[in-house]
Specification:
The structure holds three protein chains of three kinds.
Chain A lengths: L3 E5 L9 E7 L6 E2 L4 E6 L4 E5 L4 E6 L6 E3 L3 E6 L94 H10 L17 H7 L26 H14 L4 E9 L1 H12 L10 H15 L6 E3 L4 E3 L6 E3 L1 E3 L2 E3 L2 E2 L7 H16 L13 E5 L18 E5 L3 E7 L2 E15 L5 H16 L8
Parallel strand pairs in A: 12-16, 16-17
Antiparallel strand pairs in A: 1-8, 2-4, 2-7, 3-6, 4-5, 6-8, 9-19, 10-11, 12-15, 13-14, 17-19, 18-19
Helix pairs in contact in A: 5-6, 5-7
Chain B lengths: L17 E5 H15 L3 E5 L15 H5 L4 E3 L4 H13 L3 E5 L10 H8 L2 H4 L9 E6 L14 H5 L5 E4 L3 H13 L4 E6 L6 E5 L11 E4 L4 E5 L3 H14 L4 E5 L2 E3 L4 H10 L2 E8 L4 H12 L9 E5 L10 H4 L3 H12 L2
Parallel strand pairs in B: 2-3, 2-4, 4-5, 5-7, 6-7, 10-11, 10-13, 13-14
Antiparallel strand pairs in B: 1-8, 6-12, 9-11
Helix pairs in contact in B: 1-7, 3-4, 8-12
Chain C lengths: L3 H5 L16 H6 L33 H26 L13 H10 L5 E3 L5 H6 L5 H8 L8 H4 L10 H15 L11 E6 L6 H12 L4 E7 L2 E2 L2 E2 L12 H4 L3 E5 L3 H17 L4 E6 L18 H8 L3 H11 L5 H23 L19 H15 L7
Parallel strand pairs in C: 1-2, 2-3, 3-7, 6-7
Antiparallel strand pairs in C: 4-5
Helix pairs in contact in C: 3-4, 3-13, 3-14, 4-11, 6-14, 8-9
The chains are: A alpha+beta, B alpha/beta, C alpha/beta.
Chain lengths: 456, 341, 398
């Protein structure tokens, strides 16, 4: 099969840019051999004979006697396989990359056949691979070790904005990791009892129950079906237990209130620019927290606890405010202790820090205990409202909805205002409808018109 | 493989086979035994003949074996190594002495360009069964360039083998084994320990050359050391024992190839490792050990691997060297840190 | 100082045109010239015009057959050199190190050596390899990148090519010391060693240390320096104030300069030097005064640092041409002989070319073979891990 190659005007090592064809020593149809002189050219300095790089047959002379040709421009076409059948048009590229074809006077820095740049001491650099080479064999079907973080349901729980799942590495020493791995415990589901939140051997052993009874829990993956089975343990287990305890012990009543929080948002904007609040994050949650604290003074029932064992309702002089947060470990409710003693600014700082710590998964067990009231901010998910479940040990929980532009009636006109829904679930053993409604109305009034706080 | 005979010392003096020897004397006896066993063994170095060497390691050898087997060479380290290459090709087993660690560098080119590569370059057609002996390390109150620890450069160079003895028994046997080895061996001798004594049984069967050894068993943590630091590690372990902390001590003996099997076994039991070495830690053998142990023993580590080493400075003036060199206190300080993890 | 343009485009009616033989002061300072003047001490037995001349200290009785043999050697090794150069141009070799112009220096020295004499080359001594029975195809792997030299150095008495400049001189000194220690030096049947290096190498410490050691130990070593005038782009003036052969005096042994383009002179002088060494009168320094007609390696560009008329001067001193002229004048060779050599060189070129293009790439595991004589378990584990990784690619190796 004919194989056409074109021989370019070479740079004969004297920094040539062009040369003149003096004499052709071959014509089309001639058979030529490697190193046979095919043409004489004149350079700036001397007449130079050029050898043929290939064996073959001359197909075409591409330059005439007397013509000046630039270096690199093809001057002759040679068929390397003249005995072959009828062929397509000659190959256009002057220098072929394949090993046996083409020739080059490759000086340092110039491209050689094959595309590499000539170097004094070898072939020169080669471009690295841009794509991975395919590997053989199949990876075994992935065995699911850890339960996925529960998808937050607005009805059940709503958190502070969540970090990408798996965004941190649980703190544990290598031997503890190995133990966890062997026992099938997901370290991300544990709160570390060691200093700094480090997960200890004991933490792992407790997570699977008595150490003696510990068995490696291997989730089963039925790779043929469309189901995935995840063992119930860790935070999920704890959360579930808490929800059941609460939902089926405390009679839940949920009341709803829709409010126009445009003044609150305006106040927020003014506070942002004020000296006192410079650099402090003030959010709707900050206002809601403050409103809850103020309103709870008037309706202390919502801050009390039904102590069935002692046969007492416990009224508390402090507000340890819990904020529901979704973290990679699952739902946690860290508390701002003595929130009622904080100024708005202190409250804002405390809430921001709480959110950061929870995101990093570093909320300590101490911070997750002893709450008196909980706020769940479903608004960050764009959700309007819900029927939250009260945290065991508390008597009420407020769901703060998303703030939207909605039509509202102001001075007889329908105008777009910032509107928000509040939902308060309370324990009807402790809180009657009147108290619950009063409390909710107070919270709503404070958010709708923050100036009302002056009257408290 | 290597030439068969090893040191069966002549007993014509009627001496007991167990003798109390310094490292210096043990090396001298080992070299003598090798010279007697194989006529192709040659010693070459500066001042090793008439003077017997600046540390007297080759004392008496030229008198007994002649100037053609114990050469007082020109002052030319590149020449000592380069001509040894030619002699090795010719069929000799040269034992080169580099007078002090800091003077190995003129010969570094010959070592890494030729000694390390000729076997590979010729795919086995040329063998270089040569030994390069180097007194190394500090602690002798010396002027500049006489207290270096350059062993990491050579452990980093493929084609070389690197060992270091820490005691007279190892000195006696390891030098003979290195001479018998068909690969080029860098033989690092702890010069500050040259005059320390111990009992040596010259008829006992020696341990293999490229093997580490557990010198002391323990449970709380593992100490790994080589050359001059082995003594420091043992002293630290004895001091710790008085406080009820039992440390395991391992003498590496071979730096390339590393024999870390016993170290892995130990770390799997103790969970904690401290590596002790005079050489600066940056990009060192101590660092290599830390990397390998964390890879092989990852799930066993109760604490990260700690390295107690010289600092990443040139070796300081001798008045400061006691601060620079790892000592018993620094080792135990590291032990405290690892136990507190 | 004048500007560069004046050196290549001299003003009309000014001083005589600068040439390699008559450089301007600026050219000398800039090192942009090499001399073709060998000096009065140059030993020559065959002029560039093919005339036999006689030298009081060195002479040679050369027969027709011997001279035809030397001619054949030089023609074939030049052909090998040109063919390998062409193979590099086609991308079949990474580089080639050309010996063009130095054929007489190498064939003369090579044919002076006996089989038991050891040679330590640098990396351009393809002519010495030829004389030692190393087939030219065995040189290709180094430049193709498939191996670092496949011949058996012990069997061929030809050390591997040494790329670090000057290292081999010390290794040769040690080997020669070994010959002496073995009692092989002291009479006409003795052994000797020849180490080869260039003008540039004479600046390296190892070469000077080699001079010291060989002198101090009376080693049977011939230091054969091919002064081809250039160390890549630097002329010999950059290496030394005085002619290289004169350096030997500083170390206490004889140094001679021979016309490196005269195969008879190099043969005669090297023979003499080897005889001296065998007798125990070594070492000896021979400076073969020659010229590197081509580049340092294939991608070097000599036009950047030397004038082309220098090349023209040296073309007039071609080593092969003068032998051909002499053979013809003496009627020691006829047309049939020359055609026969031509055919033989063509066949050798074909053989080289075919061998080269068919050289297979070594398998990945070859990275790990023969690093140690006695093995290394750590390396072996690394190799096993690597080979397992390689076997994990669909479609096999690269």
């Amino acid at each position: 099969m004919p194989q056409f190659k074109q021989f370019p005007m070479p740079d004969t090592a004297e920094g040539l840019t062009e040369a003149e064809i003096l004499t052709w020593h071959v014509k089309p149809g001639d058979l030529v051999k490697v190193n046979q002189i095919i043409v004489e050219i004149e350079t700036a300095k001397a007449a130079v004979e050029l050898p043929c790089p290939w064996d073959g047959q001359v197909t075409e002379l591409l330059a005439e006697v007397g013509q000046t040709v630039e270096v690199g421009v093809p001057i002759i076409t040679i068929d390397l396989d003249p005995g072959g059948t009828a062929a397509p048009a000659p190959v256009a590229a002057p220098v072929e990359p394949a090993a046996t074809n083409g020739t080059s006077t490759g000086k340092i820095g110039e491209e050689m056949p094959g595309g590499r740049i000539a170097t004094l001491v070898g072939y020169g650099p080669r471009a690295g691979a841009a794509k991975r080479r395919a590997r053989v064999g199949s990876a075994p079907a992935a065995v699911v070790q850890a339960p996925a973080a529960p998808a937050p349901e607005p009805v059940v729980a709503a958190p502070v904005p969540v970090v990408n799942p798996g965004g941190y590495v649980p703190l544990a020493k290598p031997p503890v990791r190995k133990l966890a791995k062997d026992l099938g415990v997901d370290l991300r589901s544990l709160a570390g009892s060691g200093s700094g939140g480090v997960i200890t051997r004991e933490d792992v052993e407790q997570a699977v129950g008595a150490p003696a009874a510990a068995q490696p829990v291997q989730p089963v993956v039925d790779s043929g079906s469309r189901e995935r089975r995840v063992p119930i343990k860790g935070v999920r287990k704890m959360t579930a237990q808490a929800m059941v305890d609460s939902a089926f012990t405390a009679p839940h009543v949920t009341e709803f209130l829709t409010i126009d929080v445009t003044p609150m948002m305006e106040l927020r904007a003014r506070l942002k620019n004020s000296a006192e609040f410079r650099g402090v994050k003030v959010t709707p949650l900050t206002f809601a927290a403050k409103a809850v604290i103020l309103a709870a003074r008037r309706t202390p029932d919502v801050n009390a606890t039904w102590d069935a064992a002692a046969g007492e309702i416990v009224y508390k002089d402090y507000v340890h405010l819990g904020i529901a947060a979704a973290t990679p470990r699952g739902l946690v409710v860290p508390k701002v202790r003595d929130a009622d003693r904080m100024s708005m600014r202190e409250l804002a700082v405390a809430l921001d820090e709480l959110a950061t710590v929870a995101r990093d998964g570093k909320t300590s067990p101490a911070d997750m205990m002893g709450g008196t009231f909980t706020i769940t901010n479903v608004g960050v998910f764009g959700v309007d409202t819900g029927t939250p479940i009260i945290n065991p040990g508390e008597s009420a929980i407020l769901a703060l909805g998303a703030i939207r532009d909605m039509p509202w009636v102001v001075d007889g006109q329908v105008v777009p205002r910032k509107v928000c829904q509040l939902a308060l679930s309370f324990d009807h053993r402790v809180v009657d409808g009147q108290q619950g409604s009063q409390f909710l109305a107070d919270v709503g009034a404070l958010l709708a018109d923050p100036g009302i706080a002056m009257t408290y | 493989m290597a030439a068969p005979t090893m040191n069966r010392p002549s007993n014509d003096t009627g001496e007991s086979p167990v003798q109390t020897l310094t490292i210096s004397k043990a090396l001298n006896m080992g070299l003598r035994a090798s010279m007697e066993a194989n006529p192709k063994v040659l010693m070459m170095g500066e001042d090793i003949g008439k003077l017997g060497g600046v540390f007297r390691i080759t004392d008496g050898l030229q008198k007994d074996f002649g100037e053609q087997r114990v050469l007082d060479t020109p002052l030319s380290e590149s020449g000592i190594i380069g001509t040894a290459v030619g002699l090795a090709i010719r069929g000799y087993r040269p034992v080169c002495e580099i007078q002090f660690d800091g003077f190995i560098f003129p010969g570094f080119d010959q070592i890494v360009s030729q000694v390390a590569k000729l076997h590979y370059r010729t795919q086995g057609k040329l063998r270089l069964p040569m030994v390069i002996r180097v007194p190394f390390g500090g602690g002798i109150g010396a002027v500049e360039h006489h207290s270096e620890s350059p062993e990491s450069y050579f452990a980093h160079t493929a084609g070389l083998k690197v060992v270091s003895c820490s005691n007279p028994t190892d000195a006696y046997w390891m030098i003979q084994q290195a001479i018998d080895c068909d690969d080029p061996v860098l033989f690092f001798e702890p010069k500050r320990r040259y005059y320390e004594k111990a009992e040596v049984d010259t008829t006992a069967k020696p341990a293999p050359l490229f093997a580490s050894r557990v010198l002391r068993t323990g449970t709380a943590a593992t100490l790994v050391a080589y050359g001059p630091m082995v003594r420091v590690a043992l002293d630290a372990a004895n001091a710790a024992a008085e406080d009820g902390t039992e440390l395991e001590v391992i003498d590496l003996r071979t730096l390339s190839p590393l024999d870390l099997g016993p170290v892995y076994d130990s770390v799997r039991r103790t969970g904690r490792l401290v590596v002790v070495s005079e050489a600066p830690s940056e990009a060192s053998i101590a660092s290599e050990i830390a990397a390998k142990v964390q890879q092989e023993c990852f799930y066993s580590l109760e604490a990260p691997v700690l390295r107690v080493t010289g600092f990443d400075t040139p070796y300081p003036p001798s008045k400061l060297e006691e601060e620079f060199l790892p000592d018993l206190d620094r080792v135990l300080h590291a032990v405290d840190r690892t136990l507190a993890w | 100082m004048s500007s560069p343009e004046q050196w290549t485009h001299p003003e009309p009616d000014s001083a005589p045109v600068a040439t390699a033989a008559t450089p301007t002061a600026e050219q000398v300072i800039a090192g942009l010239r090499a001399t073709d003047e060998g000096g009065a001490d140059l030993v020559q037995l065959l002029t560039p015009e093919g005339e036999r001349v006689h030298h009081p200290d060195f002479d040679i009785d050369i027969t027709a057959e011997e001279l035809r043999g030397l001619y054949r050697d030089m023609v074939l090794i030049r052909r090998v050199d040109r063919e390998a150069n062409a193979l590099q141009r086609k991308g079949q070799l990474g580089i080639w190190v050309p010996l063009l112009g130095q054929e007489a220096a190498q064939i003369g020295a090579g044919r002076a050596m006996r089989p038991e004499d050891m040679a330590f080359p640098s990396y351009r001594e393809h002519g010495i390899a030829w004389c030692k029975g190393v087939h030219p195809t065995e040189l290709l792997g180094i430049f193709r990148g498939t191996d670092q030299g496949t011949w058996d150095p012990v069997e061929k008495k030809f050390h591997p090519y040494t790329i670090v400049i000057g290292n081999q001189v010390l290794n040769a000194a040690g080997y020669a010391m070994g010959q002496k220690f073995d009692g092989k030096v002291g009479d006409a049947d003795g052994e000797a060693t020849v180490c080869f290096f260039g003008d540039g190498a004479t600046s390296q410490g190892d070469v000077h240390e080699g001079f010291v050691w060989a002198a101090v130990y009376d080693a049977p070593l011939v230091f054969f320096c091919q002064n081809n005038q250039w160390a890549i782009s630097e002329p010999t003036e950059r290496q030394s104030r005085l002619p290289l052969y004169q350096r030997a005096r500083g170390y206490g042994f004889p140094g001679l300069r021979v016309d490196g383009n005269d195969v008879l002179a190099t043969l005669a002088v090297t023979r003499w030097a080897l005889e001296e060494c065998r007798q125990g009168n070594g070492p000896i320094l021979i400076e073969a005064f020659t010229y590197r007609m081509d580049a340092h390696t294939t991608s070097d560009d000599p036009s950047r640092y030397r004038l082309s008329d220098e090349l023209e001067m040296w073309k007039l001193k071609d080593p092969i041409e003068r032998v051909k002229v002499h053979l013809v004048k003496q009627q020691w060779a006829d047309q049939a002989f020359f055609e026969g050599i031509e055919e033989e060189s063509e066949a050798l070129a074909v053989e080289l070319r075919e061998f080269c293009v068919n050289m297979p790439d070594p398998p990945p595991g070859r990275i790990f073979t023969n690093v140690y004589a006695e093995g290394n378990p750590v390396l072996e584990a690394q190799r096993d891990e690597f080979l397992e990784y390689v076997s994990g690619f669909a479609g096999g190796e690269h």
